[in-house]
Amino acid sequence: MKSKLLLTVLLLFTSFAFSQNLDVSGTVLDGSGLSLPGVNVKVKSSSQSTTTDFDGSFKLLGVPKGTIIVFSYIGFRTQEVAVSGTKITVKMSDDARSLDEVVVIGYGTQKKREVTGAVSVVDSKTLDILKPVKVEQALQGTVSGVNVTTQSGAPGAKLDIRIRGIATNGENGPQAIIDGYVGDLSLLNPNDIETITVLKDAQAAIYGTIGANGIILITTKMGKKNSKTKISLNSYSGFQEASRKLPMLDATEYALLLNESYANGGKALPYPNASGLGKGTDWQKEVLGTGVPILNTDLTISGGSEKITYSVSGSHLDQEGVVGQDKSGFLRNTARIALGADLSDKFKIKTNVIYTYFNRKTINENGLGSVLFNALNVPATIAPYDAKGDFTLVPSTTGLGTEIINPLAQIANTYNDYNFKKLNGNFGFDYKIFKGFVLSSSIGFNTANSEGKTFGKQISYGGKVFDVQRSSVTQTATNDNDYSFDIYGTYTAKIAENHNITATLGNTIFKTWGNSANATGFDVPNNSWEYADLSLTKGLPTALNTGGYVYDQRRLSYFGRAQYDYKGKYLFSAMIRRDSSTKFGPGNKVGYFPSFTAGWVVSDEGFFGESKTINFLKFRASYGTLGNDQIPNNGYLSLLTGEATYVFDGNLTSGKATGQIPNSDLKWEEAKKFDVGLDLRLFNDKVSVVADYFIDTRDDLLIPNIPVSGIIGIGAPGASAPTLNAGSVRNSGFEFAIDYKEKFSDSFSMSVGYNVTFIKNEVLEVNNGTGIIEQGGFGVGQPAASRMEAGKPIGYFYGYKTDGLFQNQAEVDAHPSQLALGANAAPGDIRYVDLNGDGVIDTKDKTNIGDPIPEATMGFNFQLNYKNIDFALYSFASVGNDMVRNYERVLSDANRLDYVLDRWTGAGTSTTVPRVTTGATANNVLSDYFVEDASYFRIQNIQLGYTLNPNVTQKAGITKLRLYAGVNNLYTFTKYKGFDPGSSAGPTNQDGVSQSPIGAGIDYGYYPVPRTYLLGLNINF
User: Where is the signal peptide (predicted)?
Assistant: First the structure.
């Protein structure tokens, strides 16, 4: 009987115990009540987990009552819920700045609270709002310390990223690392990106030689485990227009001014009767298109099971240019597949492969004779077409020169095509060898092929320099490849509960190689683009018409990093990297680059107490040395790239000769980076503050093509000056960013962000014998406009200071002679300052008249969500950057901007704009008269969206349907007279890729960045 009773009691207890194991299901919602897919749902202190599917639902089997379930998702605050029943509904609160958010730092990750370097993150939400055509645009104004400038507003044009200033003469752009391998940021589809992490200080030292200019880490989107297949379609279409037109003289104003100019020069009036000319031709209106189309579509399919995740995506972008329309168009198609698989509890593999194709057409831009240069200089009195309907020829008179032509004819006779195909990606694995130790390895690769074709049509513009006597076609084929192999081990251990150690040790092999060939054929059949092919040309060349290159570069690197923290409040890390590069000769191939970072979470100290105002406070510091080898190959060798003529048996024979002058002492350029900063959170984490002071000193600058004596033969065809370690530059500054985020109710939230960066750039030394490096052009036949010199900003403008205008002959007579500048001064001419006081105005009086580097850059961002409506505004400002106005041809008959209507016409009539005359003056030499403050404030993006009620859309199988309208590059507030105060491009360096900062900021008529109006939709199935 007792045994039966005991058995009954045991059965009752067992039944009761089992009754406490529940099958729990539920739904996870975001702050606005919409379903949230991809949320990690984990039973605390257990391996049991799942992920919400695309309607935000989840299910867990056999969960004991009272168990804690943890809900976590990037961008939201982690929540814990105790199981009390079979149904759970969780509403997650936004917390994009959560301290537990994981940040990618290179060969590993850290929680944000533990990061000791200067690191900034841009997430996919920001990219969704900004809708950038290129990824780089998303960094402008969103990340402190980062400045993005355009080389042109043309579709597909390159953008330059500068992290904490300009430090070297060569490649100044940061290196992009895409999912662990070296990649090209400009070719990525923005919709494929999950996060962008910017490493700005010595934290980047783990990447050694490629980290001197900063590192941008890209994490692409992956599928989620235990989730149904999700289909996401994002599409927008819109139209573009020029964001700005310059105020030019109309036909009547031009004729009257030209009459005055000729009269002042003692010549007959060219327009005796100007009253009937009217407005004439608005050449900008003829050239700048309106309603220019742009179309973009992205499709992503993703999901996963318990062991496998996948993400497949494709995109199509088609953009025409506001200048030349389809003659300056850009088309880009991408396809991507990402797979991850857990082969066992210890072994995981992953792969990510991207295919990119783009086609780009270009017009002549940003230079003397460019399309916009002509549009600004052709007089409004000339009609676009003659009586026969042909393009009007611009007269080849002295007053209009030989390079100004009809810009519409120039566009029509421009023929070129460039196709680019690239396959890149990586394959990797993680193997957990034993507890705490993981071995990781990956192979990354890039292989690209491109073909270009340019057709020069036989044509006459009426005796201009653009006349083509023989038709020709030039074709180029290029193949570029690289691969990287990384293998590294990561050991993580906890000692005595309070000491946490992470150690990483690894090896990297990188190789890049490629070749290019180009050739030109003459006399294209039918003088037609349709027949423009080398195989069809039969004309004999008058000179060598083939070229190309071949290269092979390699790097071998070893790296190590140790990270330690005590109770999560005392943080320390040390890194070292050993790089070996084929860019340098024996004895200089190897470089060692150490760095250190430290942090102190003050708010975790007992003495700090429970502050109601300060929720988190961390001080951090870093110092390290990084290398740079981004120079042309084989600079330490003498190459047979020169051309020479030899005599054999009395006959002249073409041959090769020494080209580049070698420098066997070439060594690594070093970037020494120092940073101190703090991270602060206030008022229940509603306010976040990040501040940094930094000093970035670049020593042993690798300067290509250093000017040397012509005696040693650099003037011969194919010869070039050497590359030297010949300078030092320092950037110092302060960064400050503040964000405020408030959730007023479940249906109303707001966030505001502001960041500012102050930078001072100074050249410390130039060791090339003269102490000066000159580059950059102004006008025609004038000396170099920009300089690099110790004590000045790199690339500052070098010219004359002005002191108003001469108002009468007495002032001219009392002033030092200006004859050395080209002409005697007269009343109404510019008065130059005699800086050295020697009584003569000449080249000795030249000085610093401005520089293109801004003193400060800042971004202001605002987002508002009310029920199903969302609004966002992003803006950017640059303060203190100067530009040289160089798009006005100084020929007497060229058109002018309308500011010349305020010219000097007699004593007291003007103190700023000189007289007009056909006579000789010195008014056109480079002076601060042509240098303008190009500070600006730009509204970069405004977007308004509406998300349909999910209860309605889910009936159609749609989990989310959002419609939006937006404007990119809405308006730019500036006093600068040119098209775009945010553009800047220096001359191309010897490597044919990088651009020198010496000569940047000289405006030949930059292609304007378009204003774009968009309508789009986001659909999730």
Answer: 1-19
